């Protein structure tokens, strides 16, 4: 049975449908972000857990120069070791059909059975290599897809100086390469880097590794941590040139995935909170006005015996009904947003089965959060309705007490046109309402700034890395460190105009109880093809007397300039040396430590050597150069600057474009909702006043100027405040993107500020046009009959 109160509720919802829809849309945006981001996070987490568990992802990894297979039993005997897989892993250059640049293949050996005990290979198509055939390989699915390769395709690789034609007999993926990047890479470039799995005998014979291995992966018993195994494993492998064991948390692919999951989790929390906070604000303003307008109805309800709680619940139901509309629209939008995010992550994180999953928990949290927003937003208005005595409620609300403001007493207002004078007086006499309106618009503008923050950060990263740090066109990595004279041989290649060598070695840096495994890079003091440049600190010169370290690394180790750091070199003499920190650099990609190249060679106990070269090339001869580089046996990988720039740009753009556009779209809805509600409420509150001005002789245009001008002033005041709010929110976001792989600087482009303010201005204009139509229908007769 429909009671009078339900009829009253339906009537109010229909009469205020514009404002109800505006508030409901804001709620829907918050729900969509919560359901979408939380669902994407859960989908990734579920896929990760299933894949890691089902395919026995390793807990500990280690690389060595060459260790005999006889070591396996000693490693297996270590306490807590459950599974051991020894491999031969080598990076080689390759010629991929239809691709002129040299690609890099990471060869990973497979046991004779074809199925590794650890890091099991998931075969999508085809079959495992025949142990009797040395030319059969399984290619990673993402590399094959990027290059149009299928089962039956062939690629040419340079194995220890010999060209070998490899037949792809299978397409697969491994939990070790959920995020597939190679040496010297931070972001994936699946056209130029790929993993292939090949029979152990084939790769062993090619590199003289019979009866040996250079890579090992372990799984551990439940309750045993990687830290408990790393030290004893290092002691066993030290004599074989171990580069230092490390746990799953430091494995490159897993670290990227873990960072992304942490970032999504934070985003799925703070963004919905902001949206729901704004929706609470809208409900508060809407219900406050409704209670004021319905004083007489409240008085009648109480006079007819309805209690204060019943009346209060009536207005709470109004808020809940508004929120319910938002939930009904937000949940489907959130599920669609989740599919977009999962499709995006599927391009970077490669699982056998990554699907968008509906999260009951996210739906429950979304509903509860919306109800909480309704209760908070409606709370003050509900209390006012409950406390109104019937006799007082049935009387018209007392006019606000007005008195001369400072502007009046100073005579400032007298010099203004009458319309502007009325606008300023009204704002000055109701500062609370003006502040609430301004705050709502400012929050919405701030969210618009946040929506484009990621795109600006990407641009700053690229500008720094490829405008100031990297000036080389091509980077070469050697299989092993070469004498420095190798640079003269490379300079003779066609198209090479200049070459600068660098030496890289893995190192454990320790300060107190903190430690971090990084690549220590030796650069020439006068090098200019690759510089050490910070985002704010400018260029830093490498020193032979100490280390220049990334600010992120300094933060991790809790070190500063002048502090001494223990460096355990994992190559050469494997010295443990102590060096001071001579400078820190706030770079934006990766974490690094730098030293002068010759000083590094001395510490390694070697004559001057290089791990690779930075090249400046003649682009007119690049094809000839690439053709030669593909066939040089000493080179393990070739990185082309233009390709890296394209890869990083597309990776970060795709990562942030969807989320940024969605957030910007949602923020635009908030801006429109807030501005529209403000102007509609202002019209409702001042309808009689504006009609009175018409009776007194003001034209329709003059009355419209007063109403719309007031909202225009509030919007104009809110815009700079919104920029400040957005800047503050972005500052809170910076730690979320503070990863080892990249850091997002706090930088906002002018275009971002412009596009953040544009929706607010457009929404204000659109709302103004909407209310102009209502102004034409002001009831002037009703004004003359009004009892004051």
TrEMBL record:
The keyword DNA damage does not apply. Pfam families: FtsX (PF02687). GO terms for cellular component: plasma membrane protein complex. It is a multi-pass membrane protein. It is found in: Cell membrane. The keyword Cell membrane applies. The chain crosses the membrane at residues 20-41, 264-287, 318-342, 362-386, 434-455, 656-676, 712-734, 754-772. Residues 272-390, 662-779 form the ABC3 transporter permease C-terminal domain. Keywords: Cell membrane, Membrane, Transmembrane, Transmembrane helix. One of its GO terms (biological process) is lipoprotein localization to outer membrane. Belongs to the ABC-4 integral membrane protein family. LolC/E subfamily. This is ABC-type antimicrobial peptide transport system, permease component. It comes from Cupriavidus basilensis.
